[in-house]
Amino acid sequence: GDSVTQMEGPVTLSEEAFLTINCTYTATGYPSLFWYVQYPGEGLQLLLKATKADDKGSNKGFEATYRKETTSFHLEKGSVQVSDSAVYFCALSVANTGNQFYFGTGTSLTVIP
Amino acid sequence: DTGVSQNPRHKITKRGQNVTFRCDPISEHNRLYWYRQTLGQGPEFLTYFQNEAQLEKSRLLSDRFSAERPKGSFSTLEIQRTEQGDSAMYLCASSLAQGAYEQYFGPGTRLTVT
């Protein structure tokens, strides 16, 4: 079946450190891949997406590249800020399953000054 | 664009009672999804609608759960005879049926069953 495996947290980094959150997937069809972010007390927000192999999604300094050969979509940011503290969810959707999302378990990130 | 809204934001109920949640999607979105999220987990798919038609239901959706989307606008999710295991955050999302299919999520309804 379709699923997402996400790097477990929590992750604690100092401000300006480099961030990587690993995400790998299994899909029966050709998935679209997403990263969502959930700030404390808020709903899920789309951070970035990629819909085909080798696409790079980017937003707010975050990037992720759709790697079909390794079935991965790792999230990276070169220099994190305190305001990036949140829970990050990797997700996939496949058109032939009504585009329901399959989410990873989430990775909690805390950035300390 | 006012975003996806959900009401109520919080609901506390006693075991065995029925509860109903409402979701208002982004107005031009014809797909509407319900998810459930428990602490420390990612959201899990429950069901989705395209316009007024309920097209898929997860095996997680027991017969105590029912969802409707009359007229293809807002949707309701009802849980009958609530159990403590139903305590969770219930999320609604909407999307267009075409394009990159990104889903826009509401703030959720947190249900606590005592």
Strand content of chain A: over 45%
Task: Give the beta-strand count of chain A.
Answer: 12
Could you say which structural class the secondary elements and strand pairing of chain A correspond to?
mainly beta
Number of helices of chain B: 0
What are the segments of chain A in which pLDDT stays under 50 over at least 5 consecutive residues? none
- Annotation, overall tally of beta strands of chain B: 11
Query: Main beta sheet of chain A, described?
Result: 6 strands, mixed
Q: Quick check: average pLDDT of chain B?
A: 92
Report the end-to-end length of chain B measured between terminal Cα atoms: 36 Å
Pair of chains with the largest interface and how many residues each contributes: A-B, 26 and 25 residues
Radius of gyration of chain B: 13 Å
User: Structural class of the helices, strands and pairings of chain B?
Assistant: mainly beta
Strand/helix succession of chain B? EEEEEEEEEEE
Structural description of this entry:
The complex is a heterodimer of chains A (113) and B (114). Chain A is mainly beta. Chain A has no helices and twelve strands. Chain A has strands spanning 3-6, 11-14, 19-21, 23-26, 31-38, 44-50, 56-59, 62-65, 75-77, 86-94, 101-103, 107-112. Chain A is globular. Chain B is 0% helix and 49% strand. Chain B has strands at 5-7, 10-13, 19-24, 31-37, 44-50, 53-57, 65-68, 75-79, 88-95, 104-105, 109-113. Chain B has no helices and eleven strands. Chain A binds chain B through residues 4, 6, 32, 34, 36, 42-46, 49, 51, 89, 91, 93, 95, 97-106, and chain B through 31, 33, 35, 40-45, 48, 50, 55-56, 91, 93, 95, 100-108.
